[in-house]
């Protein structure tokens, strides 16, 4: 089926390519690259719309965004079905309906927060007041793993603070994103939020455009570095979230019965296709066999298949590129003699399915440990001492998230303080919150999103200094 409204929105320039249902490989429609001329025209419209939008009283922008919250809530089921169809995550479990709940929450919270002016210094001679002003036009580059939720993370704070937004969704999840933009734009003033579509060259042209003042990007380290290069042409401010290879450390003696569910979903939420998923699990050698058996038993009871079937709570890999990458890492693990501790049942489907897989007899230095799998494969690594586990957890170019699991919270906090990551969770993993700043260390990016700090990130600080 082809989305004719989208075909009118974007004109074919060089190529058209297909969007597929990853569970069935059904063709959803053709996606076209937005031309440079169209992007220029959209930016011209955004410049005009942004001035009008930022001139509105702050209370009015808040009110409009709360109406966006209502519109997303009312269309939640429709959009969830689109996510399942194009991204692949199931409607059931922590899947598409879960993603839509997050879209609603991450719209409501920024709309309810205040960022007033601040007197940063005052004495008998002077008074200095810090204001937060909109940047102008924000280029938002959204990924395919959580296409609607992460787009919301980029769009809503930017709009809240008076910016206009031009969004480029991933070429793999174009249609579901366009459906959401229709819903949002049924409430917003015209041209405050616009969308362009296509492959990397489209995003590259947008991010390097001289009128772009801020770039928000979620994706790979390699592409993040290209975004940094593009920003050298316009000095755009950056918020980059470039993935993670998150480590989890289970401290000795953990009562796993209290935590199995959280460890499993910490690793396999969205089939492991989440930047802040648990991707390396370090387990004390004395607890290894017990923990492996418990996780394998739990994993064997989690149904996988077409996300449209309400029985399933695990779905496919979203695209063939990622499917092939994960298969390559699995093959490499086989070639080096890794132990396959558990491998689930693959659905009888031609879709991009990889069953949940637990891998042992591997260590730092092996590709399956060192490279972000971004899929349903979890290497479990033995350690002898806590110091060894910490050193191995920190032995990565990434530093997005990490976790420590223990019945002794004081000991867990000591270990957490030594891990090199933007967020370290204790007895949970990937538990982001719209009030709590979230961002990475090392090559996982820079800048933060969410909460008051997230609002600050889409503004320019302006000081007015008054001599008394």
Automatic annotation (TrEMBL):
Membrane-crossing segments per the record: 135-156
Pfam families: Aldedh (PF00171)
Secretion signal, residue range per the UniProt entry: none
Family: Belongs to the aldehyde dehydrogenase family.
Enzyme active site: 241
Protein name in the entry: Aldehyde dehydrogenase family protein
Keyword entries, A-Z: Membrane, Oxidoreductase, Transmembrane, Transmembrane helix
Superkingdom of origin: Bacteria
Gene3D superfamilies associated with the record: Aldehyde Dehydrogenase, Chain A, domain 1, Aldehyde Dehydrogenase, Chain A, domain 2
Aldehyde dehydrogenase domain mapped to chain residues: 14-463
PROSITE patterns linked to this entry: ALDEHYDE_DEHYDR_CYS, ALDEHYDE_DEHYDR_GLU
